[in-house]
Specification:
The protein is of the alpha+beta class and 314 residues long. The protein has 7 helices and 13 strands. Helix 5 runs antiparallel to helix 6 and helix 5 runs parallel beside helix 7.
């Protein structure tokens, strides 16, 4: 699933008969212009984004159809009718004066959405009008993504790095589905573009990328908490493995080099990276086994369930 950011635009002035007809395709009874509130959105475009991905223009064409009739929700926690707008029109907007990083003419996927004017939706309408609700997060699935530099689905090109003067990125192709879009309330003083939605599987990317402000939903906070506890558990295993290696290196080195003061070896092993420590433990163990081939207690001490080559992430 690809999650992208979009923007709300100034609400269209009045609703003409043509637009009301489009809206009324989605309603059970015929609504009058004064009964609905409509607004414009930019759902996404073909510019390379911060995930080093972009939609191909033909993907935007496909999304144009897929987003028709989809809902926009304002509040993930309370999915009431008052908190939902529906997309009734989509279009592609070409902006010839703007060129994307990939050297193409900028193309935007735009949409119009409506919600009924009720006492319950008044607050949301106010929030849109006042610019508090201005960013949307849209999600869709694509069948494939290919490298912009070589056109392959997997390759060695590092995304974001320049090749032939152009940054390599993923081109998202063949959208298969579009999901509801959701509004994210952005405090007015924050400039557009500083807020990044934390999408599915985005935590690693978020932690590795440059510092940025992030808005999180409750479920995302829970997900981060869960992930943190998992990592903490893995870190404990990693520490236990390291202590085991340190103890082994000290034990075997004492056999191989009995003259070496223990304190010197202790501070030496403390300063080693895990990889180096593993090499040292192995070398001393092999040397010790050569020196004392019959001593069974020199077999490597490994606890049950412990990985052979310690694949610890931390
Ligand atoms: Zn490539």
């Amino acid at each position: 699933m690809n999650t992208k950011e979009g923007l709300v635009r100034k609400a269209p002035e009045g609703l003409g008969p043509e637009e009301m007809e489009e809206i009324n395709r989605y309603t059970r009874r015929t609504y009058q212009p004064e009964e609905v509130y409509a607004f414009s959105l930019v759902l996404c475009d073909n510019e390379v984004d911060r995930d080093n991905e972009r939609f191909a223009v033909e993907s935007l064409e496909a999304l144009k159809e897929l987003f028709l009739g989809k809902t926009c929700i304002f509040d993930h926690e309370r999915k009431s009718a008052n908190q939902t707008a529906r997309i009734y029109r989509t279009g592609l907007e070409r902006v010839p004066e703007k060129t994307t990083q990939a050297g193409e003419e900028l193309v935007r996927l735009t949409a119009r959405a409506y919600l009924p004017r009720t006492s319950g939706s008044q607050e949301v309408i106010e929030l849109i009008e006042s610019g508090i609700l201005k960013e949307v997060s849209v999600s869709c699935s694509v069948k494939r993504k290919v490298c912009s530099a070589c056109g392959r689905e997997s390759c060695q090109h590092e995304k974001g790095k320049l090749y032939g003067g152009k940054p390599a990125h993923w081109v998202l192709l063949e959208p298969t589905d579009a999901y509801e879009c959701s509004f994210v309330a952005v405090p007015a003083q924050r400039g557009a573009g500083v807020v990044k939605r934390f999408g599915a599987g985005g935590l690693d990317k978020l932690l590795e990328g440059p510092p940025q402000e992030v808005l999180l939903t409750k479920s995302q906070t829970r997900e981060i908490g869960k992930r943190f506890r998992e990592l903490r558990q893995q870190a404990l295993w990693g520490q236990a493995y390291r202590r085991e290696l340190e103890a082994g290196a000290l034990r075997y080195s004492a056999i191989v080099q009995p003259a070496m003061p223990r304190a010197v070896m202790e501070s030496a092993v403390k300063g080693l990276a895990l990889e180096e420590l593993r090499e040292m433990e192995k070398t001393y163990r092999q040397m010790a086994q050569k020196a004392l081939p019959l001593a069974p207690q020199l077999a490597p001490r490994r606890q049950e369930g412990e990985p052979e080559n310690g694949q610890f992430i931390i």
